[in-house]
Amino acid sequence: MQLLSTGVLFIAGSVLISLLGLWVVRKFAPYEVMEGHKEIAGFIYGILGTIYAVILGFSVVVLWEQIHDAEIIADREASQLSDLHRLAQGLPAEQTRAFTESLEKYCKLVIDEEWPLMDMGKSSPKAHDQLLEIWRQGRSLDPQKEGEKIVLDKILDALVNLDDARRGRLLAARSFLPKPLWFALIAGAVITVGFSYLFGLKNAIAHTVITTLLAVSIGLGLFLIVALDGPFSGALSVSPEAFSAVLENWRRVSSSPTAPNP
Questions:
Q1: What interhelical angle do 38-88 and 179-196 show, nearest 10?
Q2: What's the chain's average pLDDT?
Q3: Cβ neighbours for 155, distance < 8 A, ≥ 6 positions apart
């Protein structure tokens, strides 16, 4: 609901600014002056509109792919946590109790502390330290049987994958639309809408309708980019749902001894 309200305000603001510009141009540039430039203005406007549409569409696709990739990375990290918890069941409980508790603590820190920080492209030092603690405890495991040694090897492999996934998630959290591209989007919007003022339309109502529809179209595109900018910070950002699901699964299993391992 908040996203919808923000979108309406954003688009309404774009329309108002565009119509204000149209009013100023029509007031100080009479129809007779503009009418003689219709053909050349239409030709140039077609080129400008195409270029701007490509830039706008390219930005939306790039941001959408960034969110999709970030979601995959976050899911992979949560899956590695689940795998580590499951693998730990293959070792004696007295050895792995602290290890599984560290996994759960790390998962909580990611959800409660690190996820809000990623909104600003930052990470949680506590979550980082907790991951180091998981590594320390993982390396301190002392399997006695041959089968337990195989399990430990898989645990260490999963720890490497967990580390890589976390690094990828934090890098994705710092991915925002470059400032030069933002400049191109804003400048392109101003030029595209402003150029529509140059068409010599005698009917002010028709000119107003055309400008309004153009402003709404561009405003929708820009609002979508604002909502998508930053995989973990935009209005359509990646949620910690995968981590919450893993944590909930652990809690459910711990409260039900007959349930399968997580």
A1: 150
A2: 86
A3: 84, 87, 88, 138, 141
Rg of the chain over Cα atoms, rounded to whole angstroms, equals: 27
Residue 25's pLDDT is 80
Which residue in 135, 128, 98 sits closest to 113, CA to CA? 128
3's CB contacts (< 8 A; 6+ apart) are: 227, 235, 236
Q: What is the pTM of this model?
A: 0.80
Q: Residue 9: what pLDDT?
A: 86
Quote the percentage of the chain above a pLDDT of 90. Answer: 46
pLDDT confidence of residue 260: 47
In whole angstroms, what is the distance from residue 262 CA to residue 227 CA? 35
List all residues 6 or more positions away from 83 whose beta carbon is below 8 Å from its beta carbon: 158
Q: Is the pLDDT of residue 262 over 50?
A: no
Report the C-alpha gap between 119 and 229 in whole angstroms: 11
C-beta of residue 8 within 8 angstroms of C-beta of residue 208:
no
Amino acid identity, position 50:
T
- For the stretch 146-171, pLDDT in tens is 888 898 899 999 999 999 999 999 99
Model confidence at 100: pLDDT above 70: yes
Task: Check if the beta carbon of residue 160 is closer than 8 Å to that of residue 84.
Answer: no
**Which of 4, 7, 13 lies closest to 189 in space, CA to CA?**
13
